[in-house]
Write a structure and sequence with these properties.
Blueprint lengths: L5 E7 L4 H5 L5 H6 L9 E4 L12 E5 L11 H5 L5 E4 L6 H11 L15 E2 L5 H18 L7 H14 L3 E6 H7 L1 H7 L7 E7 L6 E13 L8 H4 L7 H15 L4 E12 L11 E3 L5 E3 L7 H13 L5 E6 L3 H7 L5 E4 L2 H13 L5 E2 L17 E2 L8 H10 L8 E5 L3 E2 L9 E2 L4 H15 L1
Parallel strand pairs: 1-3, 1-4, 4-5, 8-9, 8-12, 11-15, 12-16, 13-14
Antiparallel strand pairs: 2-3, 6-7, 7-9, 10-11, 13-16, 17-18
Helix pairs in contact: 4-5, 5-10, 7-8, 8-11, 10-15, 11-14, 13-15
Length: 452
């Protein structure tokens, strides 16, 4: 079978369209079609008379004013399948172009394989783009996997496999050891027939390198427990392990890029179900830190998982501690699906993440750890309640709960993410998404470069 001939693809912005068209034989055709080079717009060019054997003369890809990788995500969906394309010079970054094309080509096809190959770019793909896209797409795969096929043990297996691929030291904790060492985490998973697991991953041996600690919420499915979710709120709960998937993808990128850091990762892999063994409203749990927690709502389970993991993580005195979690609907109400909420006890760390997010078009939005609301977590019978009795500031309250398990001396960031694309857009197919991964990676690289 002959390899298809690579056709020219001209990425173009509105302010460069006239100059480009002055060089193309099909300029009148493009103008008559009303092509305006807006982001994601594509127009196929008619055959070049000098090369009539080709069914197409090429294509123009509109970039608009968008400097992100995402306009190039339209390549896979907007150009004919089984075609090859060669990027022509233009006003764009080659790394971003290839990254966007790879992100846009992603499909979760485990149960519905594609019958034809999507359009692809020719030439060598930059290694960095390949690594980052691979890490994001692996996280997407985990989030998109149905919960019946991704239980707590399966998610733990994925973390162990990642560690083995990169020569990391990995450990799985379950059973009695989990109950004794991570009692709040174990309590969340007690209601499921699929027992909970906790995984630690350690990578990097240079004792002088910065220690980056990552923590992820891995609730593979969340019924809400006895405070049962309505069916409409349960439909996407297979993505409630999106925090764990994101930190696994971030760890993969860090290790594959061989960043000069030491890395620790912890994920709690649990299912929040209803049974005679499940935790109940107003139960009192003891955490790894020794603090007792009154369970104000069994649907606020993620913060219990993270509490034990954060307590474990701070003991190693990391330079940066970053946790990801699909933690609150309140964050989505405030910021929508595309903007993860960032909370931090350290302005320097927060600014690194915010600046990096804008630079790589993976934005975060900071919300305050407003200490005036901390008394809302008071409990008459325990160290604190897991929720507030007030209907306000749900995302802030959850962050304040986590803050109780992180000392002020530890530079910590909590990222409350949706981990999901609600619609198909260039570079962002509907389904699981590793929001904040590229922002965090870029921030960590900045930390390394600044400190040497």
């Amino acid at each position: 079978m002959t390899q298809p001939i690579a056709l020219p693809l001209f990425p173009v912005r509105p302010n460069g369209l006239d100059a480009l068209l002055s060089q193309l034989p099909a300029a009148d055709f493009v103008r008559a079609a009303g092509f305006d080079a807006k982001m994601g717009k594509i127009i196929l060019l008619p055959p070049n008379p000098d090369k009539a054997a080709n069914p197409l003369g090429g294509a123009l890809l509109g970039l608009g004013d968008d400097r992100s990788p995402y306009p190039f995500g339209a390549i896979a969906s907007g150009l004919p399948p089984d075609t090859l394309w060669s990027l022509m010079p233009g006003d764009y970054d080659a790394q971003a172009a290839h990254l966007g094309a790879l992100l846009g080509a992603y499909r979760y096809d485990r149960f519905k394989p594609q019958t034809r190959k999507h359009a692809q770019l020719t030439g060598p793909i930059p290694t960095r783009a390949t690594i980052i896209a691979g890490a994001i797409n692996h996280a997407r795969d985990l989030i998109n996997t149905p919960a019946n096929l991704l239980g707590p043990a399966d998610l733990a297996d994925a973390a162990l496999a990642l560690g083995h691929r990169h020569g990391a030291r990995v450990e799985r904790i379950s059973g009695d050891a989990l109950t004794e060492g991570y009692p709040a985490l174990a309590a969340v998973g007690a209601g499921s027939d699929r027992p909970p697991h906790m995984v630690t991953l350690r990578w990097g041996d240079d004792k002088h390198a910065k220690l980056i600690s990552l923590v992820g919420k891995g609730v593979v499915f969340d019924t809400g427990g006895y405070d049962l979710k309505p069916s409409s709120a349960m439909l996407r709960m297979k993505k409630d392990m999106g925090g764990a998937a994101t930190v696994l993808g971030l760890a993969e990128a860090i290790m594959a890029l061989n960043l000069p850091v030491r890395l620790e990762l912890r994920i709690g892999c649990v299912e929040n179900s209803v049974s005679g063994h499940a935790m109940r409203p107003l139960d009192v749990l003891t955490t790894r830190a020794g603090l007792t927690v009154e369970v104000g709502n069994t649907d606020a389970e993620g913060r219990l998982v993270l509490a034990d993991l954060l307590t474990d993580a701070v003991a190693a005195q990391p330079d940066w501690l970053i946790n990801f979690a699909t933690l609150t609907g309140a964050a989505r109400t405030a910021l929508g699906p595309d903007l993860p909420a960032l909370f931090s006890n350290d302005d320097g760390l927060a600014n690194h993440l915010l600046t990096a997010g804008l630079a790589v078009s993976d934005p975060l939005w900071r919300l305050p750890l407003w200490q005036d609301y901390a008394p809302w977590l008071d409990s008459p019978i325990a160290s604190l309640n897991s929720v507030s009795g007030k209907p306000h500031a749900g995302a802030i309250i959850a962050a304040l709960f986590l803050n109780r398990f992180v000392p002020a001396s530890t530079r910590w960031a909590h990222i409350d993410t949706y981990a999901w694309n609600e619609t198909n857009r260039p570079g962002r197919p509907e389904g699981g998404e590793a929001l904040g991964l590229r922002a965090s990676l870029a921030a960590i690289e900045t930390l390394v470069s600044v400190t040497g």
